[in-house]
Design goal:
This protein is an alpha/beta fold and about 325 residues long. The protein contains ten helices and 14 strands. It has an eight-stranded mixed β-sheet, with helices on both faces. Helix 2 runs antiparallel to helix 9 and helix 3 packs parallel to helix 4. It is globular. The two termini are about 35 Å apart. The chain binds S-adenosyl-L-homocysteine and N,N-dimethyl-L-histidine. N,N-dimethyl-L-histidine binds next to helix 9 and strand 12.
């Protein structure tokens, strides 16, 4: 099986510069893409199994019923999954697709986490020996043109990972994707919808503290890249719904005054007790918001598939 790797490696200055700029900002931030080293990807997989983390509980049955309706669209096409993670979502989808159609598909999992691609692509190849798989380690924000465009493409972006992008990033991502899509291509986008705030906040403050571990792990990733001396236990996990932006925000809050050093920095990074690093946004959408985003990006919504409670949507889009 082929795996192409377009990601910069640990130790490359472009990553260091990005992380240092974010940590020197006011407020301090870290891009959520850096959650997903090997350990972070495993922690996310554990999160998806938690009772409180509702999105997969709603998205998985929806994927099954939607696959029944769309399975014929997959014939003879390149199936590109952005942010494929453990590939569990695409397996649910592919289980509903007849073997003779799977035989005609080339599946391209695209993810920043190489270990996730290696492990999940192998598992998937065992599950569907008749299907061609070609992994791509890449950043879907910057490398969209690296994805082969030889045949008709069916793009999938599940899990509401689009919600982790700022409004500006999401618009740019959709516009870039719209530009590389051809007239017969399709996008199936999973989006988490606005709902009771209490339900959303519980999903990001689980009782077993796995989300807290996932959040704090980003400091281990920063240590790997910057040789900093962050101690994740000196930070508290904070997650709350920000109504103004319709999003969950995750932050790491310094439990005391701290100084963090790195051989790549002349001066330490200083934290006052209570100061935070903003690590993630997870936007929750409305149908109106989805339509506006699609239109502004040159895409049009063909269908929206919902669960009964309208907690999650799978949105099918084509080029305008
Ligand atoms: N789609 C899966 C995984 C969601 S977790 C699911 O629904 O369960 C988000 C995934 O997106 C992770 O595997 C992470 O490594 C990947 N990811 C995050 N930012 C990315 C980026 N900029 N480019 C490519 N992959 C990214
Ligand atoms: C991957 N992404 C859509 C998850 C989310 O819900 O925003 C990441 C996550 N963060 C905390 N829990 C899960």
């Amino acid at each position: 099986m082929i795996i192409d790797d377009f990601m910069p490696k640990v130790g490359e200055s472009s990553i260091r510069e990005e992380l240092i700029n974010c940590l020197r900002g006011n407020p301090k931030t870290l891009p959520s893409m850096y959650f997903y080293d090997h350990h972070g990807s495993e922690l996310f997989e554990t999160i998806t199994k938690l009772d409180e983390y509702y999105p997969p509980k709603v998205e998985v049955p929806l994927l099954r019923s939607t696959a029944q309706k769309l399975k014929h669209e997959l014939e003879n096409c390149d199936l590109v999954e952005l942010g494929s993670g453990d590939c569990s979502k695409i397996s649910v989808f592919l289980d509903e697709v007849p073997e003779e159609i799977r035989r005609t598909i080339v599946y391209y999992p695209v993810d920043v986490c190489k270990q996730a691609i290696e492990k999940s692509a192998c598992n998937l190849q065992d599950r569907y020996p008749e299907m061609n798989i070609h992994g791509i380690t890449a950043d879907f924000l910057g490398h969209i043109e690296k994805i082969p465009a030889k045949r008709r493409r069916f793009f999938c972006f599940f899990g509401s990972t689009i919600g982790n992008l700022t409004e500006e990033q999401a618009m740019k991502f959709m516009t870039d994707l719209g530009k590389v899509m051809n007239n017969n291509d399709r996008l199936l986008l999973g989006v988490d919808m606005v709902k009771d705030i209490d339900i959303i906040e519980k999903a990001y403050n689980d009782s077993q503290g796995i989300t807290a571990k996932f959040n704090k792990n980003i400091l281990n990733v920063a240590n790997d890249h910057l040789m900093t001396n962050f101690d994740p236990e000196e930070f508290e996990h904070v997650a709350f719904f920000n109504k103004k932006y319709s999003r969950i925000e995750m932050h790491l809050k310094a439990k005391k005054d701290l100084e963090v050093t790195s051989p790549f920095l002349k001066n330490q990074i200083v934290f006052n007790k209570g100061e935070t690093i903003h690590t993630e946004n997870s936007h929750k959408y409305t149908v109106d918001g989805i339509n506006k985003m699609a239109n502004a990006a040159g895409l049009s919504v063909e269908s929206i598939f919902n669960d009964d409670k309208k907690w999650f949507s799978l949105v099918e889009m084509v080029k305008q």
